Q: What sequence folds into this?
C-alpha cells in the first residue's frame, strides 16, 4: 500500500481511535473520518462503551453499536469489500471458564455492551464468508496509558476507567471508589489485564498490513497475559505519583466479572505484535504525565 492512501477511521477522535490516527499518520497514511474519499481500508472504533450504561440502556447500545455498524458495513459493501479492522472487546467472553482467555474461549457476554460487539463480530464473519470482506476483530482487554509524547490521552465524560479515576483522585486529593471487595480473588477486588493504548494502535496497523497483504480474516486478542487487581493498581499509582490515595468501598457493579486476563499468542505470531509498554507502572506514568500537563 502506498503512502498517502486514505484510511477511514470511525471514532477517530476517541481515546484509542486518536492514537491509531497518530500511528497511521506516522506511517504515511491519511486517516479520514468522512466517507468522501477513495479509501484503502476501514478502522471501526465508533461505539458506545460503558458497561454499566449498557445494562441500564440496552436498546440504546444495540441501536448505536449494532445498527450503526450494520449501516457502515452496508455502505462499504455497496462500494467494495475493503479490509476492515474492528474494535472489539474481551467483554464478548463473559465470565471466563479458564484463564488466561484465548480466542477459542466460548463467547457468552454478560452485559449488552459485550453482546453488541459479539453481534458485529458475527456479522463480519458472515460477510467474510459470503461477500469476501477481509476483516480482523481486535478483542482488547483494558486499554490504558497515554501517548508517550504527551500529545493525546484519555478524556471521557463521565470517566469510568480505573487508572484515570485513581490518578484524578491522586491529583485532586480525593477518594477513589472500589466497586466490590468480595470477589473470588486474592485481595477481593477485580483483576484486569491492562494494555497500553499505543500498543493497541500498533496492533491496528499490523492488522491493516496483514489484511492489505491478503492475510486471513479472524479475531485476535490484545492482552499482556498479566492481571492486576484494583488494589494493586491503586498501590502502583501511589508509587508513580508519590502520593497516598484514599479509597472508599462501594457495592459491586452489574456486569463485572471477577477476573479478565487474556492470551495474545495469536497476535504475536500472526502480526509480529510485541507490546512495548506493558509494565503497569509505565502505563500509569504515561497517563499521569498526560493528566498533570492538563492541570
A:
Amino acid at each position: 500500500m502506498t503512502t498517502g492512501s486514505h484510511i477511514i477511521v470511525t471514532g477517530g477522535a476517541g481515546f484509542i481511535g486518536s492514537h491509531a490516527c497518530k500511528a497511521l499518520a506516522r506511517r504515511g497514511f491519511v486517516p479520514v473520518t468522512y466517507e468522501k474519499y477513495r479509501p484503502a481500508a476501514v478502522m471501526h472504533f465508533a461505539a458506545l462503551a460503558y458497561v454499566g450504561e449498557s445494562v441500564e440502556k440496552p436498546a440504546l447500545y444495540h441501536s448505536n453499536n449494532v445498527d450503526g455498524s450494520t449501516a457502515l458495513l452496508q455502505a462499504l459493501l455497496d462500494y467494495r469489500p475493503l479490509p476492515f479492522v474492528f474494535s472489539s472487546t474481551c467483554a464478548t467472553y463473559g465470565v471466563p471458564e479458564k484463564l488466561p482467555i484465548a480466542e477459542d474461549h466460548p463467547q457468552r457476554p454478560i452485559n449488552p455492551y459485550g453482546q453488541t460487539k459479539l453481534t458485529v463480530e458475527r456479522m463480519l464473519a458472515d460477510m467474510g464468508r459470503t461477500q469476501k470482506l477481509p476483516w480482523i476483530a481486535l478483542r482488547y482487554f483494558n486499554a490504558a496509558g497515554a501517548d508517550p509524547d504527551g500529545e493525546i490521552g484519555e478524556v471521557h465524560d463521565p470517566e469510568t476507567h480505573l487508572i484515570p479515576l485513581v490518578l484524578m483522585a491522586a491529583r485532586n486529593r480525593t477518594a477513589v471508589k472500589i466497586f466490590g471487595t468480595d470477589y473470588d480473588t486474592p485481595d477481593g477486588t477485580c483483576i484486569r489485564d491492562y494494555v497500553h493504548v499505543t500498543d493497541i494502535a500498533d496492533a491496528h496497523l499490523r492488522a491493516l498490513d496483514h489484511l492489505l497483504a491478503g492475510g486471513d480474516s479472524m479475531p485476535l486478542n490484545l492482552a499482556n497475559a498479566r492481571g492486576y487487581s484494583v488494589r494493586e493498581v491503586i498501590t502502583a499509582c501511589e508509587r508513580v505519583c508519590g502520593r497516598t490515595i484514599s479509597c472508599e468501598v462501594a457495592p459491586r457493579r452489574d456486569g463485572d466479572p471477577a477476573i479478565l486476563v487474556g492470551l495474545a499468542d495469536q497476535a504475536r505470531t500472526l502480526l509480529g505484535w510485541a507490546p512495548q509498554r506493558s509494565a503497569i507502572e509505565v502505563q500509569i506514568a504515561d497517563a499521569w504525565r498526560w493528566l498533570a500537563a492538563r492541570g
The first strand starts at residue 6 and ends at 10. The domain at 6-293 is CATH 3.40.50.720 (Rossmann fold).
